[in-house]
Design a protein that fits this description.
Length: about 500
């Protein structure tokens, strides 16, 4: 039960990863449970990019009305070392929900192809994130100030910025622009090409769940993929996690059990109540989801420092048969969780109020999910390894209203961006990893000759946008080669006809 006597209707089912949020699981409510499903951002790499300039552009706060006439400074980053002007291409990163420098430093694919394409790189910061705050310190003060935080306003920002760059940068007037993004940024890249085909000649939408909206895909598919990742990474691995929820309930039924759980998992703050146990289970569920997102073939440090193929490492602790006791099972779960939270051995305790990096903007995404980014999630405990949780839109809406004084428009994304009826558009690559749960809401088949799907069977969340690595599977190498083929075609066609 929740505070105030309400049942936790959304709970862990909607507790995924709807974006590149900094994940904070401090208070468990129907809204926050749903929002803790982070869609994921970009990967870490120790390889520094070439240098870039930090610049600012005066943007309108409201592109679609006339009463609010204010402006704000939108931050963007430019690297033109390899740009072959005049007319050389521009690769434009459509910024996610976070500090743009983080995306800039970690989108290795763009940095690696800039020289080959003779391209300028531009990374645009999304309004309300990083330094691009329309009302400064008041931007998050209330729903009135948050009113201009929408994907549509952000896309208009990108379009206005690009058109200004082409007017003011010598040699850029006829430069073809390609939009690139991953996760929410990938959704924006696809939508950017759809809404502003006069501004960008094509788009790469990596791990972009543009169909993870009401009525477009089943709400349980996301968690099915998470479960499949664990099922194929170790014998009985998914079955052990499925059993662990009941084991937690059994062990936590008394004070001594709560103490044992707290000590077994080396928790920074001991569990003291049933509400704490709900938070604890949410934290574990998010841990398994994050592992599915970052199941990369080499050591990486995106959400946490992790070994190569981390789910395989985790599953070594979860290969139990049906005779395992509750405490034996939960000892294995604790060891598995510590692979995620303490792979380096440097953590003295585990903090269940956070699971990932703090480089990203959580409150802004809460607001976006409470308005236009409504992404249903559910579990049944049979086809997935989680406790059954239905999607309850009304409870979600009530939480949004309580938190922000707004209610979500469940069908708005389908209305404004076309839902599954996108065949009239062109020049968009949708890349998805077979290990990535967000592929459940992605475009995984060719829609037309120029709305192309690239599947990366061994890929987790936007593996193709990461820096190349000697341990990359052949499937991601092939994906990047195909993406480059389309880039060259789009650039060549645009440079042949400057009137695109």
């Amino acid at each position: 039960m929740m505070a105030g006597g309400r049942t936790e209707v959304l709970g862990r089912a909607a507790f995924t990863c709807i974006l590149t949020l900094c994940f904070v699981c401090a208070h468990v409510t129907a809204l926050k449970s749903q929002l803790f499903t982070r869609l994921g951002g970009l990967p870490y790499s120790s390889e520094p990019p070439i240098s870039y300039q930090t610049l600012y552009f005066e943007q309108k706060i409201d592109h679609f009305g006339f009463l609010e006439d204010g402006t704000f400074k939108q931050r963007y980053l430019v690297a033109d070392k390899h740009w072959q002007k005049p007319g050389g291409p521009i690769l434009f990163y459509t910024g996610n929900e976070g500090d743009v420098t983080w995306f800039c430093n970690n989108t290795g694919f763009m940095w690696e192809i800039a020289e080959e394409l003779g391209a300028m790189l531009v990374f645009a910061e999304h309004r309300y994130y990083g330094e691009s705050l329309p009302f400064g310190q008041d931007s998050y003060s209330d729903s009135k100030h948050l009113n201009y935080l929408t994907s549509e306003q952000a896309l208009a920002d990108f379009a206005v910025l690009i058109l200004n760059l082409k007017k003011t940068l010598p040699g850029a007037q006829n430069s073809p622009v390609i939009a690139i993004g991953g996760s929410y940024g990938g959704m924006l890249s696809a939508w950017f090409r759809m809404k502003y085909p006069n501004v960008v000649v094509g788009a790469l939408a990596a791990s972009a769940p543009i169909w993870q909206f009401p009525g477009m895909v089943p709400c349980g598919d996301f968690y099915k993929i998470v479960t499949q990742d664990f099922a194929k990474s170790g014998q009985n691995c998914d079955a052990s996690i499925r059993k662990s929820w009941k084991a937690i309930n059994n062990v936590s039924s008394n004070a001594s059990g709560l103490q044992w759980l707290s000590e077994e998992f080396s928790l920074c703050s001991p569990l003291k109540s049933g509400v704490d146990v709900v938070v604890f289970k949410n934290w574990l569920q998010e841990t398994w989801v994050n592992l599915a997102m970052v199941d990369y073939p080499y050591e990486a440090n995106f959400l946490q420092p992790l070994p190569r193929w981390p789910i395989q490492v985790v599953c070594k602790y979860l290969g139990f048969d049906s005779t395992v006791s509750d405490k034996q099972l939960l000892h294995g779960v604790s060891q598995a969780a510590k692979v995620y939270y303490n792979y380096t051995g440097s953590s003295s305790c585990l903090n269940i109020s956070q699971t990932a990096t703090s480089s990203l903007g959580i409150l802004g995404w809460y607001y976006q999910a409470c308005t236009e980014m409504v992404m249903p999630m559910c579990t049944d405990g049979v086809q997935d390894m989680f406790e059954p949780e239905e999607w309850n839109f009304q409870a979600f809406s009530d939480e949004c209203n309580s938190m922000f004084g707004v209610r979500p428009r469940a069908d708005w994304a389908g209305t404004v961006f076309g839902g599954k009826d996108i065949a009239s558009h062109s020049n968009i690559i949708f890349s998805n990893g077979g290990l990535d749960p967000w592929s459940a809401g992605g475009v995984t088949h060719n829609m037309t000759d120029s709305l192309v799907s690239i599947l990366i069977p061994d890929g987790a969340h936007h593996l193709d946008l990461r820096y190349s690595n000697d341990l990359d599977p052949p499937s991601v190498r092939a994906a990047r080669a195909t993406e480059m083929k389309y880039f060259r075609e789009w650039i060549k066609r645009a440079q042949k006809d400057n009137s695109y």
